[in-house]
Amino acid sequence: MESGAGKHWTEEEVKALLSVWSEKNIRKQLHGTLRNKGIFIYIAKRLQELGVCRDWKQCRAKYKNLKYEYRTVKYAHNSGDVTKTMKFFHDLDAILRYEPVTQLAAEENGRCSATETRLNTSPTTDSAQ
């Protein structure tokens, strides 16, 4: 972790991050957005209002780490290994459960392409990316 190395997130800080992350508009903006610096700047400001002083890079790194750990535990559970756990699994499950899953679809010529089911897509948003 580049910024904030050596400074661990407290349980209260993680709970605050999860509460901001669980908001519908934040979830929608984070899903499928590659250039998300602005979203994490907003999240860092919201966390400051809640008394958590973290910069946007720290928020982004924690978001990515939590998401990775969640998916690792979820995969283990789906494979039958229920011994693998994490502290905020149920909170993350409630947040990430509704994300559209990217699936590989076989095309006619035998190649595979990633397809994604997205809700509320507008032509202006897709062409801007």
What do you see in this structure?
There is one protein chain. With 129 residues, the chain is mostly helical. Helix content is 53%, strand content 8%. The chain has a domain of 87 residues. Strands 1-2 form a two-stranded antiparallel ribbon. Helix 3 crosses helix 4 and helix 4 crosses helix 5. The N terminus and C terminus are likely disordered.
Keywords:
disordered C terminus, disordered N terminus, two-stranded antiparallel sheet, 8% strand, 53% helix, mainly alpha, globular, 129 residues
Report how far the terminal alpha carbons are from each other. Answer: 28 Å
| Percent strand | 5-15%
Radius of gyration: 17 Å
Give me the strand/helix succession: HHHHHEEH
Structural class: mainly alpha
In this structure, how is the largest beta sheet organized?
A: 2 strands, antiparallel
Low-confidence spans: 1-6, 101-129
Helix content: 40-55%
Mean pLDDT: 77
Alpha plus pi helix count: 6
Q: What overall form do the CA principal axes indicate?
A: globular
